[in-house]
Amino acid sequence: QVQLVESGGGLVQAGGSLRLSCAASGLTFSSYAMAWFRQAPGKEREFAAGISWSGLNTTYTDSVKGRFTISRDNAKKTAYLQMNNLKPEDTAVYYCAAAFRLGIVRYEYNIWGQGTQVTVSS
């Protein structure tokens, strides 16, 4: 069974940090690009960060550049999102997703996790 399971979300004060993890099973993890999307209440799900299968290429949405870092460990079949200097506007459910190639469009990703809540208080 193909599965992505996120963890690491929680409540943090503005300026704080969180590290999200996405553990994969049932797929050849090293063959997939991975991404983190987020969805705030009442808003569309948006791309936050992505990483190629090799880890050599990464891309970020402008609002998180310089604060978030995406990485992966293919041996552990896990992707990560290190989030620093968090802001209240980062509050959202964060989803990890897998695709055959790195992209920024939601519909390019065909495998999704269940999401983890990140709440940043001011």
Description of the structure:
0% of the residues lie in helices and 50% in strands. The chain has 122 residues and is mainly β. Strands 2, 4, 5, 6, 9, 10 and 11 form a 7-stranded mixed β-sheet that branches. The protein is globular. The mean pLDDT is 97.
Question: What key phrases describe this protein's structure?
Answer:
122 residues; mainly beta; 7-stranded mixed β-sheet; 4-stranded antiparallel β-sheet
Share of helical residues: under 10%
Number of helices: 0
The secondary structure category is: mainly beta
Which residues form runs of ≥5 with pLDDT under 50? none
Number of strands: 11
Chart the SSEs and their pairings.
Blueprint lengths: L2 E5 L2 E4 L4 E8 L7 E7 L6 E6 L6 E3 L7 E6 L4 E6 L8 E8 L11 E2 L3 E6 L1
Parallel strand pairs: 2-11
Antiparallel strand pairs: 1-3, 3-8, 4-5, 4-9, 5-6, 7-8, 9-10, 9-11
Summarize the entry for a quick read.
The protein has strands at about 5, 10-15, 20-25, 35-40, 45-50, 60, 70-75, 80-85, 90-100, 110, 115-120.
